[in-house]
Write a structure and sequence with these properties.
The protein is mostly helical. It is about 75% helix and about 0% strand. The chain contains five helices and no strands. The termini are far apart.
Length: about 90
């Protein structure tokens, strides 16, 4: 996907989030761009929502939360790929 489209989508989504939950600061949304768990925590803290209600509210706006499992497994795959690359290049 084009990087500019992703940035534009986030701008629209963060605007919708801020409109719905005005107590969130620009800094909160900037940090949340890469960390959905942080955003959930802020919603729980600022509005007293349960995690499930905060998650549902975000999903209603089109925000997709990746599970921590998926993030970890992706990081693990990158680590394996990085190790394989290092082994190939160090063997030359």
């Amino acid at each position: 996907m084009d990087k500019n489209i992703v940035k534009g989508d986030w701008k629209q989504l963060s605007g919708a989030i801020k409109q719905k939950w005005g107590k969130l600061t620009d800094d909160d949304l900037l940090r949340a761009k890469g960390d959905g768990e942080y955003l959930l925590g802020k919603l729980q803290e600022q509005y007293g929502l349960t995690k499930d209600k905060a998650k549902a509210g975000l999903q209603d706006l089109g925000y997709e939360l990746r599970s921590a499992e998926r993030r970890v497994s992706a990081r693990d795959r990158r680590g394996v790929e990085d190790d394989a690359t290092t082994q190939r290049t160090s063997g030359r």
